[in-house]
Amino acid sequence: MPLPPSIYHLSSSHLRLDGRRWNELRRLTAQISTQASADGSSYLEMGNTKVLCTVTGPSEGKGGGRRGDEDSMSVDVRVNVAGFAGMDRKRVGRGDRRITELQNTISSAFSSTLFTHLYPHSTISLQIHILSLDGSLLAASLNAATLALIDAGVPMRDYLVACTAGLTPPSGRGDGDDMDPLLDLNGSEETEVPFLTVGTGGAGGGDVGGGGGWV
Amino acid sequence: MSAPLPPLAYPGLPLGPSSLYTPGPGTHLSPSPSSTHIHASLAGRPILLPPSNKTSTLTPSTNNKATKPTPSPNNRGGAISVPSILPSATHARPTSKNISNKNVLPEVGSVVLARVLRVRGRGVDVGILVVYDKPIEGGPGGGKEGKDGGNAGWGEGNVCGEEWQGVIRREDVRATERDGVVCAEGFRVGDVVRGVVISLGDQSNYYLTTGKNELGVVMAKSEAGNTMVPISWREFRDPVTGATESRKVAKPF
């Protein structure tokens, strides 16, 4: 059920539901080397979205070269959404299509960012645990994974960062001038507003890729 | 002279023009052909290696010690390197002095310490944790007994970077009455076992034997979780509860 359009109509208050302006990020905190037992690890908070990422490897692939790509490292991504992550407690199954797509997106993003050719016949596995879910899931996962990979010392072309952006619906008064872009959507905004997640390299490179999602 | 190297580099950070430097370990050339910069591929403190030929090399190194940025009065003919300040993926666990970055490989005759991972009817799966330097004398069959308080002369223990899979087959558990061995009476999951590699085994396992007096379980915990002491060649006792459990006991020195 859409919220009243006035919530997005910034000309009145210029503030969003959570008090941010249209171009403001949520509070961002991050730590690396949080898990001593992993090769690399990170913990990232984007507002109320909290993500823990650990990296294992590169190590010899399980199944001994069963994977097709022999010349380069394969990036294995497991995303685990904790049952308590959302507003209502529910189990997200392993076969969830949304999660599978998320894993594939992250895997392909890092396959092109890491120097996978340096590690033939090997697998690097990223475990991403979503501890708290409040929007920008893909962006937070990518950012946390980048930090964990830097911590692990895996050579990469560039660091990969991601953020979401959305566009508010027109207020219905006609001209469409009142549609406003929004940066870093939270969970409730994500359910109401079409949005896109953009991942990009840092200073050294151009766009790495983008993945999207919309209502 | 170009701008000095940044004190800290992160992946993707431009370090210097490739016209002045050559990329060393931990760096790469920019992906786009339009710009000709050397970029870091790792997080670390970049260093400038001394000029070797006619070029400078920029490399991020993975060595923790050589991380001081070297100012270069003349960087004609040097290389830039980025040593990682963070543990690299392959050398990540500096826990013990004996741990070696080179992979320690057991060979036939090596004395090893292994942890029991699974006990089955036909054998015991173990993970090899430590490999001693010197193979046991006279091969797995012979060998001398430890005379002094030391470790019977098989040298220094090297901690394996990763656990190697091994198996003690039922017939290799002890030297006598090999047919009557019951694996569950000799080992329990979590025991630390001293054994000798008798063969490189099949594709995934080293084959070990404990078929000598000084080979067998060296450390075991009871069901109650207390470390036990050996009381005979086939029994450990929990000093707290007094319960005894049967093991293939290694002869203490």
From TrEMBL, chain A:
Which residues does the UniProt record annotate as the domain Exoribonuclease phosphorolytic?
24-155
BP term (GO), one: poly(A)-dependent snoRNA 3'-end processing
Query: Might you report a single GO cellular component term?
Result: nucleolus
- Composition bias of kind Gly residues appears in 199-215
**Which stretches does the entry tag as region Disordered?**
195-215
Gene3D superfamilies cross-referenced by the UniProt entry: GHMP Kinase, N-terminal domain
Recorded GO molecular functions are: RNA binding
List the transmembrane segments. Answer: none
Q: In which family does this protein belong, per the annotation?
A: Belongs to the RNase PH family.
Protein known as = Exoribonuclease phosphorolytic domain-containing protein
Could you read off the lineage of the organism from its UniProt record? Answer: Eukaryota, Fungi, Dikarya, Ascomycota, Pezizomycotina
From TrEMBL, chain B:
Q: Which GO terms describe its cellular component?
A: cytoplasm; nuclear exosome (RNase complex); nucleolus
Q: Gene3D superfamilies in the record, alphabetically? A: Nucleic acid-binding proteins (2.40.50.140)
- Keyword Cytoplasm, does the record have it? yes
Mark out the compositionally biased spans (Polar residues).
29-38, 52-75
Q: Short name of one Pfam family for this protein? A: EXOSC1
One GO biological process from the UniProt record? RNA processing
Q: Does the keyword Heme apply?
A: no
MF terms from GO for this chain are: RNA binding
Q: Residues annotated as region Disordered?
A: 19-38, 46-83
Q: Supply the InterPro entries for this chain.
A: Csl4, EXOSC1_C, NA-bd_OB-fold
Print the keywords alphabetically. Cytoplasm, Exosome
Q: Where is the Exosome complex component CSL4 C-terminal domain?
A: 105-200
Subcellular location, in the record's words?
Answer: Nucleus, Nucleolus
What is the recorded name of this protein?
Exosome complex component CSL4 C-terminal domain-containing protein
Q: What is the lineage of its organism?
A: Eukaryota, Fungi, Dikarya, Ascomycota, Pezizomycotina
